[in-house]
């Protein structure tokens, strides 16, 4: 994979994506948004192949995760809006929506997503932190939700923040121009683990080992069922969940997992 605003490295079943604009604390340009979505789509296209990607790790270069959207893109959109130029009816809304589509793509992927959060986490980076299946922060991490203090709205981040934290905590952050350190983020469930910077790589490897011990199709089916459960009463999902379970039990993965358990060995999807 060749990219400019990000680096992408495949190691076995793991794709590590590094936001690579350290000179601006990895501010998220439209080019970066496009590259992130393309990298994810390419990883998803490998599902079911012998060289399938199973986990995506997101991190930032230069000690920061992401300082939010690139103001140059928004300034250019504002000029187009004032001059009535461009294909989009509302150039500013179009640019803003691209960040929402990015977060939605990572939220809905059947792959496992791990976010390694260091330094500044704002804007689109905040959104990615919210949709990651596993979020790991270090003592350097600082979260900001400054939009309301700037006279704007965290439009694309807000839905994912509510989903992650619940209405009460999300609203509190929005009306206070939220500032959180790693310990505070851990306490409210924004991140799942806080480690020292010197220990972050070993923490990531431990999480990857746990994820790769899970069957990839079962993991994807579980993520899909849980996503639906957010908006459905448990009783409404009983029959559908039973069908999902039945398919899994009868699948090659289900048969291999059962056999491996009885034979006291690792199933064939666990890396050697």
CATH architecture of the largest domain: Alpha-Beta Complex
Order of helices and strands: EEHEEHHEEHEEHHEHEHHHH
| CATH class assignment of the largest domain | Alpha Beta
Instruction: Give the amount of beta strand, in percent.
Output: 15-25%
Average pLDDT level? 94
CATH superfamily of the largest domain: 2-enoyl-CoA Hydratase, Chain A, domain 1
SS content category? alpha/beta
Overall number of strands = 10
Number of helical elements: 11
Describe the structure.
The protein is of the alpha/beta class. It has two domains: about 200 residues, 2-enoyl-CoA Hydratase, Chain A, domain 1 (Alpha-Beta Complex); about 50 residues. The chain is about 45% helix and about 15% strand. The protein is built from eleven helices and ten strands. The strands form two sheets. It has a six-stranded mixed beta sheet with strand order 1-2-3-5-7-10, sandwiched between helices. A hairpin with a 2-residue loop joins strand 1 and strand 2. The radius of gyration is 20 Å and the shape is globular. The two termini are about 25 Å apart. The model has no long low-confidence stretch (mean pLDDT about 95).
